[in-house]
Amino acid sequence: MTQRHTRAAVFSAGSWGTAVGKIMADAGTNVIMHARRGKIADAINATHRNPGYFPDVELPPTVTATTDPAAALEGADFLVLSIPAQSLRASLTAWAPHIGPHTVIVSLMKGIEIGSGLRASQVITEATGIAADRVAVLSGPNLAREIMGGQPAAATIACPDEDVAHRVQRACHTTYFRPYTSTDVAGCEFGGAVKNVIALAVGIASGMGLGHNAQSMLITRGLAETTRLATALGAHPATLAGLAGLGDLVATCSSPLSRNRTFGTHIGQGLTMAEATAATRQTTEGVKSAKAILALAGIHGVEMPLTEIVSDLLHEKVTLDQAAAALMQRPPKPER
Ligand SMILES: NC(=O)c1ccc[n+]([C@@H]2O[C@H](COP(=O)([O-])OP(=O)(O)OC[C@H]3O[C@@H](n4cnc5c(N)ncnc54)[C@H](O)[C@@H]3O)[C@@H](O)[C@H]2O)c1
Ligand SMILES: O=P(O)(O)OC[C@H](O)CO
């Protein structure tokens, strides 16, 4: 008897969804991408390329695409979710009726929902009624363009159920992609969401012409405030020193491939929010999540001066010079 191939439905065929679809196909899974645009789905089926995001990279023949959510989810072992975090709840309302009773959900999203302050995995359990132990989170230093080029990378896959994390790990392990497992879902998700805000800060500093000392200060103090928030909300501090914390922070804050860092650079160069937004085609989670993270910090009494100043800059409440001065002139304190 021939063994049935594992099946993954990837929603949607954006930048990271396409890269994870390729990883899973290279790891031996049959992948069906859900694309909102028929043009993208048709091109993936006809040319094995995603012309909207990576026209230069060939996808394995086991990657196909559809615009029909029900067809994509038919018999899926995994539902991989990679859409903007703020659109997750509404999208799930439409997709949830098609999710099978044993399908494992894998969240790739790095954002906190405005209004509820919930992490993506919490939005998924709330919107679908699916138990948390069937929801895994994949997070780490994973710039999609590098991974599409076959360059080596690693990530953390977190799930309260270790067996589920191991299943996802097996489905994603390739010669160029090395996933580790964890049970610290909160740590992984806060690491992924807050690093986007810190990357905005580093981009702003770079755009202002500030040097590597300043950028390194922002990365280090950014990690300190990320760890303060995450641990106040139940995360393990070691997770924030791992791939989903420090690892992702360094990659995102250092690379011109990062959309968050690039957005920040535009702001640091003096573009208005409207101009920076117009110059950005893809999802820039930190711009929206900053507000939600700050609200969470307020509720839990956690000091997050970088997130606060980035949020003020994004809302055009302070000038660049006022922001830099405000950070440097904070009262002296011990390093922690
Ligand atoms: N690109 C990366 O390198 C990378 C790496 C790791 C994690 N992530 C995370 O993955 C998530 C997705 O980012 P991305 O880079 O793929 O973004 P993207 O902009 O490249 O793609 C977003 C996808 O979501 C779809 N989409 C947009 N709005 C939607 C809506 N309202 N409803 C349903 N679908 C919608 C788009 O059609 C597109 O397919 C983000 O949370 C991001 O932080 C991205
Ligand atoms: O392009 P960004 O800024 O969304 O970052 C992409 C990934 O999250 C890096 O790990």
UniProtKB/TrEMBL annotation:
* Any GO CC annotation of this UniProt entry: cytosol
Catalysed transformations (reactions): sn-glycerol 3-phosphate + NAD(+) = dihydroxyacetone phosphate + NADH + H(+); sn-glycerol 3-phosphate + NADP(+) = dihydroxyacetone phosphate + NADPH + H(+)
Q: Where in the cell is it found?
A: Cytoplasm
Offer one example of a GO biological process linked to this entry.
glycerophospholipid metabolic process
Pathway assignment? Membrane lipid metabolism; glycerophospholipid metabolism
Q: Where along this sequence does the record place binding of substrate?
A: K110, R259, N260
Q: What is its EC number?
A: 1.1.1.94
User: GO MF terms on file?
Assistant: glycerol-3-phosphate dehydrogenase (NAD+) activity; glycerol-3-phosphate dehydrogenase (NADP+) activity; NAD binding
Q: What Pfam families does the database record attribute to this sequence? A: NAD_Gly3P_dh_C, NAD_Gly3P_dh_N
Entry's HAMAP family?
A: NAD_Glyc3P_dehydrog
| This protein's name | Glycerol-3-phosphate dehydrogenase [NAD(P)+]
Q: Which organism is it from?
A: Streptomyces gancidicus BKS 13-15
